[in-house]
Design goal:
By secondary structure, the protein is an alpha/beta fold. The protein has helices spanning 52-57, 91-97, 102-107, 112-120, 124-140, 156-170, 195-216, 233-245, 262-269, 282-289, 299-304, 313-319, 339-348, 354-360, 363-368, 396-399, and strands at residues 3-7, 11-13, 32-34, 37-42, 45-51, 63-66, 71-74, 76-78, 143-149, 176-184, 221-226, 249-254, 273-276, 294-297, 323-325, 386-389, 406-411, 414-415. It is built from 16 helices and 18 strands. α6 (156-170) runs parallel beside α7. The two termini are 24 Å apart. The structure holds N-(iminomethyl)-L-glutamic acid (NIG) and fe (iii) ion (FE).
Length: 419
């Protein structure tokens, strides 16, 4: 039995509490312990947290991990990434800066379409080789759980292949990966010509791709880009209802660039999360707040797109919603692996408190992935997912913006990122 005792931390951010999403004012209650405190781990699980003497007694003979006066937190959870892609798309950043909007680049066959062309031309081995170092970089900033979406294949073959690559990656990294099927990321160019062809793609998604994904058991969630110019509310309702009936959890890219009612649809369908929400309506805020759907905000995307409008985090929290934060790591709109930078944006752009942003990348991000009773807290019974940061105070995490303070991480008690 492998036993670890983490001692000598300046603070232990436990986020301990009920194993459910924290709503509204509960988000400000992220527990921080200081003084002579420790965390005991046995067989990949946390068995005790508290005063060092009594915690040590829970794991006799454990190997000590000297935290060296750093802060110990739950391993961070990045609940929204598109980490599986081929080449980066740096040419689009300058195009947007000089006046060509994101959706116009897509209309010209760039954007997601460019990544689709690229991925279809690559072998599985190449995709594994490209993605593994990106996952290691996400881990090097403190993540121990990462959701990874498909969505750059858009054929039955290439979407299954993408999800299978994610499955292969799971065997190569100690990170916990959560696979999401995003076959509805775009209407592929070959189906874009006529309304009839478009309906054919929705049929392909619902009647062929979804059953294939479910029978292979390669995805935990289904997601869709519900947005003006991409999938409509009706198409989203149709596909996601079928996905729920087939046993997948639901996620939506909702109200990202224009208001379309995606947040309301997420609440109606009982989705695990509604993501983006920069253009959410007041009614969407009310409906999400009254639901169990986590509002996952991705401020790095709006920042990188050069948009001034951010999701209304304060309104969401005031209304009682559960807010999570994630990187949206992808080659088009958010090429960052730095989840702590998203904490900075959460505080400085979304006006959240430090406790709220910590809750947003731990407990609430776990809830967005259906893992709230397994990870996101340093408390007995939870997976031993921990991150150690070169800081003496939790407020330094969002403060030293862009820096990489992460010293080491453990996922399920195994070293994940090493110093
Ligand atoms: O979350 N909005 C759709 N999907 C991604 C962008 C993907 C891309 O541009 O490649 C997003 O922003
Ligand atoms: Fe996204």
């Amino acid at each position: 039995m492998s036993k670890l005792l983490f001692v000598n931390a300046s603070q232990i951010v436990t986020c301990a509490g009920p194993a459910r999403a924290r709503h509204g004012s509960e988000m400000a209650e992220a527990e921080v312990l200081s003084g002579d405190v420790a965390v005991a781990v046995a067989d990949g699980r946390i068995v005790a947290v508290g005063p060092t003497a009594s915690t040590a007694a829970a794991v006799p003979g454990a190997s000590e991990v000297d935290c060296g006066g750093r802060i110990l937190t739950p391993g961070l959870i990045d609940s929204h990434t598109h980490a599986l892609f081929g080449r980066p798309r740096f040419e689009e950043q300058e195009l947007r800066a000089t006046g060509v909007p994101y959706m116009e680049i897509a209309r010209r066959g760039g954007g997601i379409h460019a990544s689709v062309r690229d991925l279809r031309g690559r072998s599985d081995d190449e995709l594994v080789e490209l993605t593994l170092p990106r996952l290691q970089r996400l881990a090097s900033y403190g993540a121990t759980t990462v959701e990874v979406k498909s969505g750059y294949g858009l054929t039955v073959h290439d979407e299954l292949r993408s999800l299978d690559v994610i499955r292969r990656l799971q065997a190569l990294t100690p990170l916990r990966l959560v696979p999401t099927w995003l076959g509805a990321h775009e209407i592929p160019l070959e189906y874009r010509e006529t309304a009839v062809a478009r309906a054919d793609y929705v049929r392909l998604l619902t009647e062929e791709m979804l059953p294939a994904v479910v029978s292979q058991g390669v995805a935990r969630f289904a997601d869709i880009f519900c947005e003006t110019g991409v999938f409509t509310i009706e198409e989203s309702r149709h596909l996601l209802s079928a996905a729920a009936a087939a046993g997948l959890g639901l996620k939506l890219h909702a109200d990202e660039l224009e208001t379309s009612g995606g947040a309301e649809l997420a609440a109606e369908l009982g989705a695990a999360s509604a993501d983006h929400l920069a253009a959410i309506s007041p009614e969407g805020v009310r409906q999400l707040a009254a639901s169990d759907t986590v509002a996952t905000l991705l401020p790095g995307t709006m920042f990188f797109l050069g948009r001034t409008r951010q999701a209304p985090a304060r309104e969401l929290i005031a209304a009682g919603a559960a807010v999570a934060l994630a990187t949206d790591f992808n080659p088009g709109t958010s090429p960052t692996v730095n989840l702590p930078l998203v904490l900075t944006l959460g505080v400085s752009q979304l006006h959240m408190s430090v406790a709220e942003v910590m809750t947003a990348v731990t407990v609430n991000a776990a809830a967005a992935l259906g893992l709230v009773s397994r990870t996101g807290q340093l408390a007995p019974g939870f997976s031993a997912d921990l991150a150690l940061f070169d800081a003496a105070d939790v407020r330094e995490l969002p403060y030293w913006y862009g820096d990489r303070l992460c010293h080491a991480t453990w996922a399920r008690g195994q070293p994940c990122h090493r110093p």
